[in-house]
Write a structure and sequence with these properties.
By secondary structure, this protein is of the alpha+beta class. It has one domain. Helix content is about 45%, strand content about 20%. It has six helices and five strands. Strands 1-2-3-4-5 form a five-stranded antiparallel sheet. Helix 4 crosses helix 5. The chain is globular, with a radius of gyration of 16 Å.
Length: about 150
């Protein structure tokens, strides 16, 4: 079967726009779409507002999501959704077994979108508290120090 990257690109964007429509209503927009390998199985989609950066990605058959705020992004990177949710709700079973490659992505995207929609305000509040740990009166910390301060790196 012939590979159709344009169709794959459109299908992926349609699924993301459908399942993450609540983010678009909050002012997010897609800033990049990258297919990492020639078979378009590994990819990442970045969505942003002035207050938040979200990356939805597929790697080795598993779809995941990571996010941060711009003030912490360059210092500590992105925080995995599952780690943030576990820190907020220890009863939530976020982690699921990896998918087989080439499976339909829509169920995984839906599940992640539902979790993010449920917890996004709590997550952004938690990340904001992490930022508050960085006092403006203190000298800037090195990236390695920040990485040690924040366990969700």
């Amino acid at each position: 079967m012939e590979n159709h990257p344009d169709l794959r690109f459109l299908e992926l964007l349609e699924n993301i726009e459908h399942h993450f429509d609540f983010l678009f209503r909050r002012g997010f927009h897609i800033t990049s779409v990258i297919f990492v390998d020639q078979d378009s199985e590994d990819w990442q989609v970045t969505m942003e507002t002035d207050e938040c950066i979200i990356k939805i990605y597929s790697y080795m058959g598993r779809i995941d999501l990571a996010l941060s705020i711009p003030q912490l992004y360059h210092a500590v990177g992105l925080f995995e959704l599952g780690d943030l949710i576990c820190g907020i709700n220890e009863n939530e079973d976020f982690f699921a077994p990896a998918q087989e490659p080439l499976m339909n992505e829509a169920p995984s995207l839906l599940r992640i979108a539902q979790l993010l929609e449920t917890y996004i305000d709590d997550i952004l509040e938690k990340i904001g508290r992490m930022l508050a740990l960085l006092s403006l009166d203190d000298p800037p910390a090195s990236s390695s120090t920040l990485g040690q301060m924040f366990q969700y790196n």
